[in-house]
Amino acid sequence: MVFMEGDGLPNIVGLRDAAPSRACDLVVDQLRSLIIGGQLEPGSRLPAERDLALRFQTSRATISQALRILAALGLVEIHHGSGVYASPHPDRLLTHSLELILALDRPSMIRLCEVRGWLEVAAIARAAEIATPADVEAIRAELDRLASERRSVERWLAHDIEFHRAVLRATGNMIALSMVSSVLELMASARVREYREAGTAPDWFRDEWESVVAIHMRITDAIAAHDVTAAHAAAGEHQERLAHFVAEIDPWAEAAPRPRAAARRASGTR
To answer: pLDDT by residue for the chain (270 residues), tens digit each?
Structure first.
C-alpha cells in the first residue's frame, strides 16, 4: 500500500525553518508516531524520499538520515530498489538489543535461557487455562510439523520456534509473544551456528529426539485438556532439557544438571 499526498501521512508539520539536525529529529518523531499510532500499517510502503522531503519541507538528505535512524530502531525496513516499509516485525528492536547484549557479554546466553524459562513456563500454564479449540488446533499443526522433521536440525528448530509461538498466541498476550519470540530466534541462531561449526548434528538430535518431541506432545496434550498442573510440569521439564543443551554448546556456561528423565534412562531406572 502506497501512501500519497493527504492520504496516509496526516498532520505532517513542515520543517522549512528548522535547523538540519533538528529537522531530522522532528521527521523521526513524526514518522515514529504515525507507525506506532497505526496510520502507517505494518508492511505498508512509505512515499519516496523526494515526496517525503516535499511533505516535510526539508532536504532529501535529512529524510534519508531520518529513515536510517528509524531502520536502526526497527520501525522501518529499507529495501534498496523497492522502497522503505513500515516494519511488519516491530519486535525486531528487542531482538537487536538482545543481540548486542550477547555480543558484549558472551555468558549471557545461559542467562537468556533462564529468562526464556521464566516467561515460557508461565505462558504454557496460562495457555492451558484459556486456549480455545482454534488455538489447540494451531498448536497441534505445529507439533505435527516438528514431529515429522527427523533429518535437519535447522528445520527442526524452525518448527520448534513456530510451535512455541503458537503456544504463546494461545495466551492472548502479544507482548509475551513479541518478547519470547526474540529470545527464541536468538537462541536458535546461536545453536545452529554452534552445530554448523561442529559439523555434525547435536547429541540430543541424534539420541534423544523422540523424548524431546514427547515433551512437546505432553505440553500440547495438557493445553488441550486445560490441565494447568500437567502443563506446568511439562514446561518445567522442557526448560531443564533446554538449559542442559545450551550448557553443552556454551563454553562460558557452567554445566547444567542432566534432565531428570534423561538421567533415569541413562542409568536404566524409571
So the answer is: 334 344 456 555 555 555 556 788 888 888 888 887 778 888 889 999 999 998 888 889 999 999 988 887 778 888 888 899 988 665 666 666 666 666 555 556 777 888 889 999 999 999 999 999 999 999 999 999 999 998 888 899 999 999 999 999 999 998 888 888 888 887 887 777 777 777 777 888 888 889 999 999 999 999 999 999 999 999 999 999 888 887 776 655 554 444 544 444 444 443
CA distance 37 to 254: 45
Give residues with Cβ within 8 angstroms of 217, minimum separation 6: 143, 147
Q: Give the angle subtended at the CA of 179 by the CAs of 175 and 183, to the nearest 5°.
A: 160
Residue 47 to residue 147: CA distance in whole angstroms: 45
As a 3-state breakdown, the chain gives helix, strand, coil percent values, each rounded to 5, of 70, 5, 30
Nearest alpha carbon to residue 168 among 177, 160, 157: 177
Cβ atoms of 98 and 83 closer than 8 Å: no
Amino acid residing at 80? H
Backbone angles phi, psi at 8, to 5 degrees: -140, 0
Contact 260, 269 (CB under 8 A): no
Cell of 115: 529468562
Q: Measuring CA to CA, which residue among 226, 45, 36 is closest to residue 125?
A: 226
- What contacts 61, CB < 8 A, 6 or more positions away? 20
In the chain, the domains with their CATH numbers are: 20-86 (1.10.10.10), 93-267 (1.20.120.530)
pTM for the predicted model, two decimal places: 0.65
Task: Round to whole Å and give the CA distance between 36 and 74.
Answer: 12
